[in-house]
Amino acid sequence: MNWNDMIYILPEVILTIGASAMLLVPVTGGRGAKLSAKWMMIILLAITAGALIYCSHAVENIDQSRQLQAMFALDGFSIFFKLLFIGAIAMLVMLSEDFLAEGKYSPWEYYSLLGFALCGMMFMASGVHLITIYIGLELLSLSSYILAGFYKSELKSTEAAMKYFILGAVSSAILLYGISLIYGVCGSLNLLDIAAAMSTIVTNDALMFGIMLLGAGLCFKIAAVPFHVWTPDVYEGAPTPIAAFLSTGSKAAAFAIFARIFYTGLHDFHLEWNYVLATISALSMIIGNLAAITQDNVKRMLGYSSIAHAGYVLLGVISLNALGLRGILMYSVVYVFANLGIWATVLMLRRHQYAGERVDDFEGLSRRSPLWAFAMVIFLLSLGGIPPTAGFIGKYFLFAAAVQAGFGWLAVIAVLMSAVSMFYYLRLVVAMYLREGVEAEFAITTPLRIVAGICLVVTLALGIVPSSLIDQAVLSSSHVAAHAALTPHAGR
Amino acid sequence: MNYILSITLWLPVAAAVILLFFPKTAASAIKGFGLLASLATFVASLGILNGFHEGVAGLQLTESLAWIPQWGIRYALGVDGISLWLILLTTLLTPVVFLSSWNTIHKHPKEYVIAFLIMEAAMIGVFVASDLLLFYVFFELTLLPMYLVIGVWGGANRIYAAIKFFLFTIAGSLLMLLGIIYLAFAHFHDTGVLTFTITELYGTTLAPHAQVLLFFAFALAFAIKVPLFPLHTWLPDAHVEAPTGGSIILAGVMLKMGTYGFLRFVLPFFPDATAKYAGLLIALAVIGIVYGALVAWVQPDMKKLVAYSSVSHLGFCVLGIFALNQTSIEGSILQMVNHGLSTGALFLCVGVIYERRHTRLLADYGGLAKTMPVFATFFIIAMLSSVGLPGLNGFIGEFLILAGSFQTWPRATIVAATGVILAAIYLLWLIQRVFFGPITKEENKNVREIAWNEVVALVPLVVLMVWIGVRPNVFLRKMTPSVQQLLQIVHKTDAGKAMIAGVGRRVSGVGDQNRPHEAMLRPPTPDPRLPLSGGVR
After folding, report:
1. B301 in helix, strand or coil?
2. Phi, psi (5° rounding) for residue A128?
3. Per the CB < 8 Å rule, is B166 touching A386?
4. pTM for this predicted structure
5. Does any domain span residue A230?
6. Contact B211, B196 (CB under 8 A)
7. Nearest CB neighbour to A491, from listed B70, B136, B143
8. Is B197 in a helix, a strand, or coil?
9. What is the DSSP string of B325-340?
10. Which of A283, B406, B447, B502 has the most CB atoms around it within 10 Å of its CB?
């Protein structure tokens, strides 16, 4: 390790220092300045993003050291996800402002925890070594546990944090146990070495058990059935911006490691795990969508819907082809933006002393704010996968990957469940457009408006002119795809 | 390159965008602008008719731009004899909707007009798209505006009806999406080219079992849309709850997206499966014809009666399509237009009296001909067109379908022909109960006569009913080459030929000139298929 290597992790270093500094501000007496916490966070994110772009260009021109590369990759795949994470966190910062303005809790701690969580996510995206991935995941998880319980004095929030923590800790332990078994058989934790070792192994019970445990731990992180039960409770109980974070950024990070581990590390044992994952995917889509139908609380509904979306993304892992990998990248973007838009709406409907998170609270929104209601329809259509929104493009990728890989039956389940999902997404449309509703005041603040505007533009633009993002996804996935020795798809 | 298709397609969208800037309260300005925009679109679509070359079979006035080049998806448009009249039907019915709802829509007029303009563009898109995925996008895009039209401006049970409509349609069309993806991959596997352009996909060879699966994936989507028995249950609900304008477009155009889909995709993409399962589709169509007619007969609600009559009439269209011969398919396309005109007019008329009396129950009427003679005349003409009175359009369509399908499916045709008789029964009985007899209800004595805007909306429909009825060849001529080409694609395969041979044996009594494959090869002579005496009737 030399100083040249530092350039790989410079953005993470900057972020860690910045987040730590923010944690210290209240101690040094700066607690009073509430607004500046937000701006400091935005500036920190901007610097991190800038450093990331700078470093990604710089590493192409320096001697690349083997040691760091075995742990940490600054490739197209990780940069794609990191930029998505930074964007998502920036929007979450905007969403959190009003909620923090109530003043009960310190914004400095809140933002610095978000910063640490982001740092964990960035390590996850770059991890090509199971320990790097595990440490990133733990950094994200620990920050998330605290954030979920951020309403210290509220029972629901504490309960959510407790549930999330206990189940999360157990799943981390399972994950770690799986990792140790894989290490025992393969003799390395680097994903490429694991892949190389696996190519010589015909069958090995300990290895199978290790893959199973690793898969179970990862499925918990993306909330796939049967490891999903925590999701609705945590989403409901956690502060709304944190629920938004858990269902978007945190989830996308879990998708990233899922893709990286299975595409780079475990692809040789594809035939052993694909049917297990296919079953999990089918169950997630079916149970997630069916359970969402009966929810009256929008946060719970989104929780179940996110379980279903984990099932869709698993299609991309199972198919193990270039199309599937790109599908995971595309779908993560699509999903994050559409979901954040919906969470912004939930936050907007929140009023003083009133949560504003029931389906009924959406009633009459089309008359009170036609543009916002329209944006909301676009987000819902995008989650449902209806053209001409971005969701259609994402689902097209995943369905096409499954069809190409011979998982036609799974694709059939996926489309049928997409139709079911439209039923509960339409419930919100019904409430907004078809019911009269009460004249309740609500405050559309500038930050919320900006977030919803960005999400709307991205969701529509990606649906109508998706070519540039597709190119980006193709480029970004090429490195990982090369490791999995995938035949490139005709589209390129 | 001629951009008339794009102009027609995007004019309503541009108008809808401009409308966004109108103040909410300027109701008549909004409605006036919507009417103007839809009339402009109609004029643009006349440009399509003008640029259309009659003797050409393939797609004309084509446009093609790369849309998503990575997947070979193109913004490709084109029109042929199959889609030409459906485009014109769409652009004709939209101004009719705006005219008919001039005085009836008070709630959110701006959103109403925008929804119909977007819907018009999407429906035109469905008929002009010559890229499979572009078609799919437009196909889905029609859903949301119609959902909102039913859900916002509909009757008491509108939310249930709107959701049912949406979910039925989306379930079918999502399976079709999988079929589209599979088809494109199969073509890619064959040729190394990933494309969604319809004409390039026509030659795709598919394994027999794949062809059957794809056939059902596509057929299900279109069968729900048509709707074919037993998938029709969303239709009566949607029609009863929809506002008049919604019903006109739903029955007039949207149902045709299903029959059009059969013709454009199912038949040429899956000729073997089509030949194999034509009997199944014909059986369902015939059941639909009779069942729809019988259920219509007993309806106490006028609108529901017309809705079930749609199930019956669309059954004829499907029968004509799957009879797979020149006469029946031409009749089927003509019947799609006819049904759009006559059922559109019937729904409009039902809307007119509902607006005045706020009831659709037949029992609440009687003797209206005395108080509303002009209206009664229009209603009766529309009804007679729907029944299939010779001299009006409905007769030509139904006659061609039955004459054609009798060559290939004689027994099914005989059963289907009872649908014509039943239609006469339930529609004439409807007229009798509403317009004739003594005025039994006090309220019916002072019903306001039909208004100017409703007359203006009905006149073009009636003119076309007579025009098609008297000079059908003006309309049929433009279809003939395209239908011939379609049948050549369908019958080129061995299975297609075998089916024809089998059919030839079954109707051995019928002369050679009635065999479909020879009818197909015959040059399009002007009139031998229209002997106005001695048909099946």
Report:
1. strand
2. -120, 15
3. no
4. 0.88
5. yes
6. no
7. B70
8. strand
9. SHHHHHHHHHHHHHHH
10. B406
Cα–Cα distances (Å) from B371 to A153, A379, B100, B445, in that order, read 73, 52, 20, 6
- Of B141, B188, B193, nearest to A387 by CB-CB distance is B141
Residue A271: strand, helix, or coil: helix
pLDDT at position B334, please? Answer: 92
Cβ contact (<8 Å) for B143 and A386? yes
Distance of alpha carbon A303 from alpha carbon A230, whole angstroms: 9
DSSP 8-state class, residue B242:
S
- B175 has a chain A CB within 8 A of its CB: yes
Per-residue pLDDT of A336-363, as tens digits, reads 999 999 998 888 887 666 667 788 888 8
Domains identified in chain A, total number: 1
Q: Is B439 on the interface with A (CB under 8 A)?
A: no
Residues of A in contact with B151 (CB under 8 A): 430, 433-434
Contact list, B136 vs chain A (CB under 8 Å)? 387
What the block records as the tokens of A311 is 């099932």
What is the sign of the dihedral through the CA atoms of B16, B18, B23 and B26?
negative
Q: Is residue A395 part of a domain?
A: yes
CA distance A215 to A274: 11
Residue of A308, A343, A336, A353 lying closest to A428 (CA atoms)? A343
> How large is the ipTM?
0.86
Nearest to A422 among B170, B178, B185 (CB): B170
Strand extents, DSSP E, A385-458: none
Which residues on chain A are in Cβ contact (under 8 Å) with B170? 386, 418-419, 422
A396–B141 C-beta distance less than 8 A: no
Question: Which domain, by its residues, includes A402?
Answer: 3-484
Question: How many angstroms separate the CA atoms of A307 and A420, rounded?
Answer: 14
Percent of chain A with pLDDT over 70: 91
B140 and chain A: CB distance < 8 Å anywhere?
A: yes
Work out the angle at residue A433's Cα, subtended by the Cα atoms of residues B135 and A359, and round it to the nearest 5 degrees.
Answer: 110
Q: Which residues of A touch B (CB under 8 A)?
A: 377, 381, 385-388, 392, 396, 399-400, 403-404, 408, 411-412, 415-416, 418-419, 422-423, 426, 429-430, 433-434, 466-467, 470-471, 474, 490-492
Mean pLDDT of chain B: 84
Tokens of B321: 């399509």
Give the one of A392, A403, A471 whose C-beta lies nearest to B185's C-beta.
A403
Contact B170, B176 (CB under 8 A): no
- B358 CB-contact burial (10 Å; exposed 0-12 / middle 13-18 / buried 19+): exposed
Q: Could you tell me the two tokens for A379?
A: 């987000």
Query: Is A489 a domain residue?
Result: no
Q: In A34-106, which residue ranges form alpha helices assigned H by DSSP?
A: 34-58, 66-71, 76-101
The mean per-residue pLDDT over the stretch A384-406 comes to 89
Do A403 and B175 count as a contact with CB atoms less than 8 A apart?
no
Answer whether residue A171 is part of any domain: yes
> Peptide bond preceding A226: is omega within 30 degrees of 0, i.e. cis?
yes
Which of the four pLDDT bands, split at 50, 70 and 90, describes residue B529? very low
Answer whether B143 touches A (CB < 8 Å): yes
Q: Provide the shortest C-alpha distance from residue B259 to chain A (in Å).
A: 22
E strand or H helix at A336, and its extent?
Answer: helix A322-349
